[in-house]
Amino acid sequence: MKPVLTNRAAIRTVAVIDDDEAVRDSLALLLETHDCPVVTYASAEAFLDEGDASRFACLIVDVRMDGMSGLELFAELREGSYLPPVIFLTGHGDVPMAVNALKDGASDFMEKPCDQDLLLTRVQACLSEDQQRRGNAQHQQKVVELLADLTPREREVLQEILLGKLNKQIADRLDISTKTVEVHRARIFTKMHVHSAMELAAMLKEVPTSDWFS
């Protein structure tokens, strides 16, 4: 399970990673003028020295840079605990590479020189996407913490409930009494803060099965 991402509503800072100083400065001015905090980096290596991509709500990354390329940086950051939405900046010849990056999870790409209004629109979309991702991650961790409080038998009953089994079917399956199943079901609902099997299924829908009892 990924770590909790706190203060998601407060995280709006954008990182601009480009080895062209003029591009860095112009993007920083544009974003800051529209109340969007910015930190700029002259290379992928300089960004990695910071060590924490989760500090940012969006990364604007040049595809081609001296040293580590933007695509290489993206590949490395994908191995980390959290990668915010990424917008790639490309020259005309880099478009196919940028399209491939989209398939690997990048949020968008724009050709240089960028249209300012379009860039602002896409950054705002990334900020919204980042807030949603962080909210989902926090929800998942909360659910996993609730699951961790279940006993082994309650976990077995839970899995049967999610399969839509009736109490008697669960009792037969686990070789316990129907009354015992009723007790376990009630305790599960109390511990998970739900009132029905439907509500329980909805809570667990976005949580990977591998995280349920980790």
Q: What would you say this structure looks like, in words?
A:
The protein is an alpha/beta fold and 214 residues long. The chain has 2 domains: 8-135, Response regulator (Rossmann fold); 148-211, Winged helix-like DNA-binding domain superfamily/Winged helix DNA-binding domain (Arc Repressor Mutant, subunit A), CATH 1.10.10. Helices cover 52% and strands 10% of the residues. It is built from 9 helices and 5 strands; from the N terminus they run E-H-E-H-E-H-E-H-E-H-H-H-H-H. It has helices at 21-33, 44-50, 70-77, 95-103, 116-147, 152-162, 167-174, 178-192, 197-204, and strands spanning 14-17, 38-41, 58-62, 86-90, 108-111. Strands 2-1-3-4-5 form a 5-stranded parallel sheet, sandwiched between helices. Helix 3 (70-77) links the parallel strand 3 (58-62) and strand 4 (86-90). Helix 6 (152-162) packs across helix 8 (178-192) and helix 7 packs across helix 8. It is elongated. It starts with 13 loop residues before the first strand and ends in a 10-residue tail after the last helix. Mean pLDDT is 88; it is low at 1-9. The modification 4-aspartylphosphate is found at residue 62. Residues 143-208 form the HTH luxR-type domain. Residues 13-127 form the Response regulatory domain. This is Response regulator transcription factor. Keywords: DNA-binding, Phosphoprotein, Transcription, Transcription regulation, Two-component regulatory system.
Present the secondary structure layout.
Elements (H helix, E strand, L loop, with lengths): L13 E4 L3 H13 L4 E4 L2 H7 L7 E5 L7 H8 L8 E5 L4 H9 L4 E4 L4 H32 L4 H11 L4 H8 L3 H15 L4 H8 L10
Parallel strand pairs: 1-2, 1-3, 3-4, 4-5
